[in-house]
Amino acid sequence: MKKDNPLRQTLTLVKKDLTLELRQQYAFYGVLLYIVATVFVINLMMGRPDDKVWNALFWVIQLFVAVNAVAKSFMQENRGRLLYFYSIVNSRVFIAAKLIYNIILMALMSVIALVCSVAFLGNPILHPGYFIGMVLLGGTSLSLLFTMLAAIAAQANHNAALMAVMGFPLIMPVLMLLANISLSAFVTVYQPELPKMFLLLGGMDILVVALTMILFPFLWKD
């Protein structure tokens, strides 16, 4: 299989992960329960919050959705299966497939989180198209970052504490950027710093992908 087209190998691995998820539905139902329960409890405690609080709560929910959905993607790969993949595919092909799969999974979970938030917490969004785009973009950013962290933690015997320690200083600037950019969906006033924030977020995503592609082959050998 190592002689096959890398793109075909990547798509095959993505298809494999999607097929396993459809059969087991381990991440889907677990995260779905978390989203519904969290939003419902927030509704019972706070009712319908104002715009800024709604936005902040939504991205906090997105953070924990990413932790539960994306970070667990490597947990289903036991040592024997990883050794098998090591013998048949290139390391960059393997991690690229994980990145694509987690982007798809996180996009689905993000849309579900948005629907539940609107249903239980009201809809203060003035520009829904813009906010939906931000939700998908933010879900992509979170999935890329947590895929990298999960890959590192998986090589340390799935040490969750390691992922938490590494993830905190990395995730904070991403969350702050997403919250600030998405605030434009709740106001009619244009934010002059918006293009710079988009460029910064895009640059961080590219950096995460580049670091993942560079670092993972060294982890893969271990």
The biggest beta sheet is recorded as: none
Overall mean confidence score, pLDDT: 83
- Structural category: mainly alpha
What fraction of residues sit in β-strands?
Answer: under 5%
Report the uncertain regions.
Answer: none
Discrete helix count: 8
Distance between the termini: 21 Å
Q: Based on Cα principal axes, name the global outline.
A: globular
- CA-based gyration radius: 18 Å
H-E order? HHHHHHHH
Number of structural units classed as domains: 1
The helicity comes to: over 70%
| Count of β-strands | 0
Organism: Chitinophaga polysaccharea
Transmembrane segments: 26-47, 53-71, 99-122, 128-153, 160-186, 198-220
Keywords: Membrane, Transmembrane, Transmembrane helix
InterPro entries: Cyt_c_biogenesis_CcmB
Topology (SSEs and partners):
Elements (H helix, E strand, L loop, with lengths): L5 H19 L1 H21 L4 H19 L9 H10 L2 H31 L6 H27 L5 H23 L11 H28 L1
Helix pairs in contact: 1-5, 2-3, 2-5, 3-5, 3-6, 3-7, 5-6, 5-8, 6-7, 6-8, 7-8
Structure description:
Helix 2 (26-46) runs antiparallel to helix 3 (51-69). It contains 8 helices and no strands. It has one domain (6-221). It is globular and about 55 Å long. The protein has helices spanning 6-24, 26-46, 51-69, 79-88, 91-121, 128-154, 160-182, 194-221. 80% of the residues lie in helices and 0% in strands. The relative contact order is 0.13. By secondary structure, it is mainly α. The longest helix has 31 residues, at 91-121. It is a multi-pass membrane protein. One of its GO terms (biological process) is cytochrome complex assembly. GO terms for molecular function: heme transmembrane transporter activity.
